[in-house]
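A quick aside before the break. I want you to see a complete sequence-to-structure record at least once, exactly as it would be stored in a machine-readable document. Don't worry about memorizing anything.
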Amino acid sequence: MQISRRTMLIGAGGAGALATVPVVQKLRWDGRDFVREGYDPNLHAAPEGKEAWMNWAGNQRATPHGVLWPENEAELAEIVRSAAGPIRPVGSGHSFSGVAPSDGTMIHLGGIEGLRGIDPATGEASFGAGTMLFNAAQELDAKGRAFENLSDIDVQTLAGAFSTATHGTGEKLTALHDYITGFRIMTPSGETLDVSADSNPDLFAAGKVSLGALGVITEYRLRTVPAFNLKRTVTVEPVRDFLGRIGELGATHRHFEFFYFPGTELVASLVHDVTDAPISDAGEADDDEVLQGLRQLRDALGWAPFLRRWMAQSEFPQGVIEDRVDSSHALLATARPTQFVEMEYHLPLEEGPAMVARVIDMLDRRKEVYFPMEYRHVAADDAWLSPFNGGPRASIAIHSSPEERYDFFFTEFEPMYLEKGGRPHWGKLHGLGADRLKALYPDFERFVELRRDMDPEGKFLNPHLAQVFGEAANA
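That is the input. The structure line, written in tokens, reads:
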């Protein structure tokens, strides 16, 4: 979004307003330390004979015997057959849940990547499972093809994105795993299976969102579409004028999402629609400056909600702040330099507007929160562990800096989502086990039975997945 932190800094007008406020309240706020107890941004030390690993956000850590990079299926088969367990495939580390870590062996598929081919008749493309999303999108673009939709972070591997049900936004657009037409998966014995809806319908329906619990997927065959351009319009406006239009905006535009800036009563909505217009000037990317400005606003005025709102609404640009045309992959997905942790729940679509109003109110009451909240729509699909199985969903994501407290995600927000049938994003923070999950997912027990058949010794289970599936934890 084209907003500069410089437009949000407290200037002379803000300093004058501060002179009129209770000094004691301000001093108490200024004395707060937002860093949570025990936070350490550094890579931890590993015992002799082991390696240290942590995810992008730093909230998940492990000391595996090794993080191995096979270059082909033959090398992978040898690792799977012989390596110390539990074995976990790991992508780019953008999952905040405990889905990836292992103190046994971690396998990175970065050596099994790249475009393998495109069928000129159907547009079906084959990729190595370790291909990063931005590379896959660029390779398709060079061939005149594209993914129908993309997630908003583009550095995940295909395997990591699909296996955790990563999605973009669009009321008529499905999550990324729904593009899968087939895949190759390596079982615990090192055998490789070629899977499609015709050859093995159950494994296909389970494997599209597998959490890496069925085996190691090495290759995907994917549906693609002709390359297309989008027009993006970003509008900043008061939240009170906006929330009643969520249904209309979601139904009207190909892509619709919005961000709420806590403590400001302002939202930024983003809509994208297909266009034949020429590509326009990209401008400057300064999302990080927005975050820094929001943080500075919190640090200076979090103790005084009225002043915080007043300053934000006085200094923040409003109305249409961006109107841009570019290729679909350039607009839909980006990198995220600023680290964060996230909880995202997917609720029945009709529950979305009322729930997001509650979430906004709760975030505003927590004066220390400054990270934007994100809201999106996703169409239904039929993968067994897809959060979108059985109907369209509204996705609500809340965020925090890794160094600050986020325990309230679990105590205040998660119970509220569960009341309305919310399902967690598998790669984001959640506290659910098998008992709760089987009530949320119609095919959950079918997946558990298939997982046991595929991996009876639990070679691919770590403690997090053991909790998720109600199994004994592997060492």
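Two observations worth writing down. DSSP finds 15 helices and 20 strands in the chain. Residues 1-16 have pLDDT under 50 and may be disordered. We'll return to this after the break.
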